[in-house]
Structure formats: structure tokens, C-alpha cells
TrEMBL record:
InterPro entries: NIF_FeS_clus_asmbl_NifU_N (IPR002871). This is Fe-S cluster assembly sulfur transfer protein SufU. Transmembrane segments: none annotated. The gene is sufU. Pfam families: NifU_N. The lineage of its organism: Bacteria, Bacillati, Bacillota, Bacilli, Bacillales. It comes from the Bacteria. Residues 10-127 form the NIF system FeS cluster assembly NifU N-terminal domain.
């Protein structure tokens, strides 16, 4: 697949998650994290249900650019039903990808790979990582409450 076709595919995946976000909404009886990116105004309200070391459910609400909201949608899909350790590993891989660093490619990132091009735009990295940072804080908060 040529670079232009791959770039177009990635844009299509990002816009699909932005226009039809997965796991949009809020959960009751959950860990709640609210974060914002004051630089551009992105805001996320993430709710997680973690039980016995598993992210049983994840939903988000918020406002922001297509990168921020698509990333939140992709993140909730990626971590839902996964062990906390796996969710945190995905977050580390995602952060490395955003910084243009070599990362563990043994884990299939699925749609998340579509955000790899964000690393070329430093001003947008915080947009892409906002939901992931919220998830990290959420599982940390949950582990301290048990």
C-alpha cells in the first residue's frame, strides 16, 4: 500500500472514531477522571470500572478536536475487558509511538495505529495522549482505593 493510500486510510479511521465514537457516555459506580488540555481546550471525562485487575468497562464524554476524541474512543475499545497491566502497557506503547520512538510491536494496536502520524505534529501529541493519561490516572486511583 502506498504512503498516500495508508495516510488516507488512517484519516478515515480517525474520522470514523470521531464521528461515531465508541463507548461514549458515562458509567455509574466507577472511577471518574476529568482532565483537560488547556493549550487547545480538549476536555475528557473518563469513567472506568475495574474489578479484580481487569478494566471491565470504560466510557468517556468530553469535547475536543478530532484527534483527542478519536483517541479517547480508540483507547476505550483497546482497554475494555483487558487486564490493567495490559492497558498500561498499551498506554506506554502509545506514548512511545507519539514521541516517534521505537516501541513494542508484538502487540496489535488495531485502530490505534491510525494515530501514528500525530508524532509529526508536536502540538497535537497532547491531544492524542489526553485520554490515555486519564486512563492511567484512573487505574492508579482504583488500585489505591482497593
Amino acid at each position: 500500500m502506498s504512503f498516500n493510500n495508508l495516510d488516507q486510510l488512517y484519516r478515515t479511521v480517525i474520522m470514523d472514531h470521531y464521528k461515531k465514537p465508541r463507548n461514549k457516555g458515562l458509567l455509574e459506580d466507577s472511577v471518574t477522571i476529568e482532565m483537560n488540555n488547556p493549550t487547545c481546550g480538549d476536555r475528557i471525562h473518563l469513567t472506568l470500572q475495574v474489578k479484580d485487575g481487569i478494566v471491565e468497562n470504560a466510557k468517556f464524554d468530553g469535547d475536543g478536536c478530532s484527534i483527542s476524541m478519536a483517541s479517547a474512543s480508540m483507547m476505550t475499545v483497546a482497554v475494555k475487558g483487558k487486564p490493567v497491566d495490559h492497558a498500561l502497557k498499551l498506554s506506554t506503547i502509545f506514548s512511545e509511538m507519539m514521541l516517534g520512538k521505537e516501541h513494542d510491536d508484538s502487540i496489535d494496536l488495531g485502530d490505534i495505529e491510525a494515530l501514528s502520524g500525530v508524532s509529526k505534529f508536536p502540538a497535537r501529541i497532547k491531544c492524542a495522549t489526553l485520554a490515555w493519561k486519564a486512563m492511567e490516572k484512573g487505574v492508579e486511583k482504583e488500585s489505591h482505593s482497593q
